[in-house]
Design brief:
mainly alpha
Amino acid sequence: MSVSSHVQELRRKHQALSAEVEQAQRAPASDPLEIARMKKRKLALKEEISRLS
């Protein structure tokens, strides 16, 4: 897998996770710890994208 396709895949995952976080934040019964975990994964993806770009 080339670096550019890997970065593209990471961006896709980041966008999907972003949508998931937004949906969880709107849900009244969502787990705040799970939202925090998703945000950490999202940040890790963003850092990996920055590192590779």
